[in-house]
Amino acid sequence: MVAENTTKNLSITLRVWRQAGPNQPGKFVDYQSKDLNPNMSFLEMLDVVNDELTLKGEEPIAFAHDCREGICGTCSCTINGKAHGPGKGIATCQVYMRAFRDGDVITVEPFRATAFPIVKDLITDRSAFDKIQQAGGFITARTGSAPDANALPVPKPDADLAMDAAACIGCGACVAACKNASAMLFVAAKVSHLGLLPQGQAERDQRVLAMVSTMDALGFGNCTNQYECSAACPKLITHDFIARMNRDYLGATLRSAFKPAPLGTGGGAG
Amino acid sequence: MATLDSKIPSGPLADKWRKHKVDIKLVNPANKRKYEVIVVGAGLAGASAASSLADLGYKVKCFVFHDSPRRAHSIAAQGGINAAKNYQNDGDSVYRLFYDTIKGGDYRAREANVHRLAEVSVNIIDQCVAQGVPFAREYGGLLANRSFGGAQVSRTFYARGQTGQQLLLGAYSALSRTIGAGLVEMHTQSEMLDLVTVDGHAKGIIVRDLVTGKIERHSADAVVLATGGYGNVFNLATYARGSNATAIWRAYKRGACFANPCYTQIHPTCIPVSGDYQSKLTLMSESLRNDGRIWVPKKKEDRLKAPDSIPEEDRDYYLERMYPAFGNLCPRDIASRAAKRVCDEGRGVGASGLGVYLDFSEVIKRLGENTVRERYGNLFDIYHEITAESAYQVPMRIFPAMHYTMGGLWVDYNLMSNVPGLFVLGEANFSDHGANRLGASALMQGLGDGYFVIPYTIGDYLASQKPGSRPKPDTAAFTAAEQSVGAMTKRLLDNKGKQPVSHFHKRLGKIMWEHCGMARTKGGLEQALQKIPALREEFWANVLVPGSADTLNQSLEQAGRVADFIELGELMCRDALTREESCGGHFREEHQYPDGECKRDDEKFGHVAAWEYQGADKTPLRNVEPLNYEFVKMSVRNYK
Lengths: 270, 640
Ligand SMILES: Cc1cc2nc3c(=O)[nH]c(=O)nc-3n(C[C@H](O)[C@H](O)[C@H](O)COP(=O)(O)OP(=O)(O)OC[C@H]3O[C@@H](n4cnc5c(N)ncnc54)[C@H](O)[C@@H]3O)c2cc1C
Ligand code: SF4
Ligand code: FES
Prior knowledge:
The complex is a heterodimer of chains A (270) and B (640).
Chain A: H1 3-6, E1 10-19, E2 26-36, H2 42-55, E3 77-79, E4 82-83, E5 105-110, E6 118-120, E7 123-124, H3 127-136, H4 156-166, H5 173-177, H6 184-195, H7 204-217, H8 228-232, H9 240-258
Parallel strand pairs in A: 1-5
Antiparallel strand pairs in A: 1-2, 3-4, 3-5, 6-7
Chain B: H1 16-23, H2 29-32, E1 36-40, H3 44-56, E2 59-63, E3 81-82, H4 94-104, H5 111-131, E4 156-157, H6 163-180, E5 184-187, E6 190-198, E7 201-209, E8 215-219, E9 222-225, H7 246-253, E10 258-259, E11 264-270, E12 293-297, E13 315-316, H8 318-322, H9 332-344, E14 356-359, H10 361-367, H11 369-387, E15 396-405, E16 408-409, E17 422-424, H12 442-462, H13 476-495, H14 501-516, H15 522-542, H16 554-578, H17 602-605, E18 607-612, E19 621-626
Parallel strand pairs in B: 1-2, 1-9, 2-5, 9-17
Antiparallel strand pairs in B: 3-4, 6-7, 7-8, 10-16, 10-18, 11-15, 12-13, 12-14, 14-15, 18-19
The complex binds flavin-adenine dinucleotide, iron/sulfur cluster and FE2/S2 (inorganic) cluster.
Iron/sulfur cluster is lined by residues 168-174, 185-186, 189, 233-235, 237 of chain A.
């Protein structure tokens, strides 16, 4: 028998963080939601609650979302104290109501971190991630200057490992899950992705130095090897990449001590 | 009447682009920094354009409604990107890629554009690899390929099931580099709400800062729109929820022609709707049709029975029955329409009745569960996550869904619309896919437009504009545009009706799906052309938009988008009604061969229909650009 005909609908209490704007006080507000189909996604449940609020003349709950299939990294709720909620290796948009039981109280908050200020209700400002990328998360390759794609073979294991790291969706759950609000997993994923490839070697030192110093300057905390980040990561990015980045960083620091700093543009490394 | 000069260069097909690059005007390097270019959108098309133009020396301002350029809808593309590299030595060439794309588009695209696309495809892969895109590789370290529908060669490059993500992150890294170097001014969470034209030229935009609600004016020497497709007119689609048509629709209302709006693509294998709350449809890779058998019960009364309790003789493997040669592997549009037909007969499965079975029991029996897990494990996992059903034990339920829009703003060979200074790239334009897009070619077109076409062709326009001549944002045209944006916002918020925005979007989606979806008829389209204007009236009489204009207000954002979708939906139906033929994704039931293939009418409709706005409540004008096939013979598409 198909699941949708046999499962019972559920009613829940939603305890949501409401905050009108960036520097305003926020508080939890309870909403009852009844007769929900368990095959509904968590975000669809919020849609339904929001339409009900609208009809009652109240302001709907602001929440971030777009692709609703776990790839864009927009959705970002802490559900019952867990970044992206129950379940392993999924984003908020991939949580379904069947993960809850009839009568549950579900607490929903924004991702909390100093570097991610709250914009409204469940929406935070994660532009700090973009700033870290702008500092060095790239390989300089002006359009039109590339050699033939097969001119540079890349060993398959390196390409595969680079891809594991590149799967990061930039959601920030790693930061929200970390008690120090560290962005190490996010930065390590990008540094490893590019550093594992032969194309990424020329700027390897400069990249890691610039990205790490920008991360520090933006108010992210230090890593104390708690590994809550990997546990919350919707793409299961492993903390092994953090160790890899630490080695890169150390090497780059040593090498830059013997070399004059590069002139001109660059992300202010060191 | 708009002038539609396609500006296709003369000469042999393979020389056109090379010759054109020599013939068009250039802007001298010292002058480039005197020109400002606005790029709206940072998907594959917008991000590649913004960084490439910035590297050339132009001053670039880039706008997205997302909170980061990395979140554009391009991120969700799965399958891959085509390129005529012939790395597999299997007979591929620029000409073959050109030919497959023209044929796939059912002979409704321009030959010259498609050939250029095939030419630049090889440079795209080089560029992406240089940026560090981790494409799949073979053991020797060279790039791997796979094959995709509509081609007999292996020319698709891919990065696991996340090709769009990796290509976008490559383009985003180039964009980030240029932002970091101060060459691009990036505006996130900024939604373009109007195009500003001065003396008929596109010279700026009006945007709303989605966080503060502030309305801003930005002027420039040229405006580039790369704002994606309009499939969310259907409400339920494989698109991201935020994808919308506002930028191109408002540009249409400022004079840009909208070409072939009825050309839309429906994908046969998506997870069906499970209830009225549904907000999006998830694509399941078409590769599943290689091993799964599609069926529905023969008898209506069996449709809610457990599938394993329905004996073989009571099952209808309808694709195998109707198309014995191709069976479950028949082309996308045919498979989609057949599913619709059996569901219309009341034999669809699942609670909604809008689903068919994709059954793996036979292949599991034949090859074992492990082999099937190796081939499709990740897809079975996604299916399980969404439906809580195991496709190893019960057949999957699938149904077609809206997936891509081939139509878009009309552009010439330079990718400039009929409004001088307004360029349109990526899914937002109509240019390269004709009436149907082949798999793995949208990513190619987006990056081709942004990396390798616009950097050349924009110079041809800018060279005709005096450096420093761009209007100031305090001039009358900007004031007027800002006022019209403000008036619409006020009207939405002051309306205080009885229904939330989603109510109207859902109803529009249902009308579109029923009358302008997989199969269209004269009668159905005429009905839609009654229903949609009525819905529009009801929307403006009864929509309820809470909150205010001066804060983040998602209801307000959505209200503006849905208002535009309603108007665009009407134009799509009008276009579909006027095009009295079937071609590619546009299937008119009146025009088909006995085997269900599209019956084109090249004599009457071998042209592009480009609609021109005439004012509210006035019927738009249908302009025509004839398609001159000089090199390929228009013939009946045949994949048998
Ligand atoms: C599920 C799925 C799978 C797919 N798989 C493939 C595949 O395997 N191969 C393939 O070739 N194609 C595939 N496609 C199609 C392809 O992904 C898209 O056609 C393509 O990515 C569109 O790119 P774009 O740059 O034109 O637009 P988008 O990526 O949609 O970007 C639009 C940009 O415009 C901005 N924007 C829009 N409106 C405004 C506004 N008013 N103001 C400011 N900014 C605005 C957005 O913020 C965004 O940055 C797939 C599509 C889907 C839905
Ligand atoms: S590392 Fe994981 S949790 Fe952190 S931003 Fe990337 S995908 Fe999100
Ligand atoms: S909405 Fe895109 S990852 Fe969740």
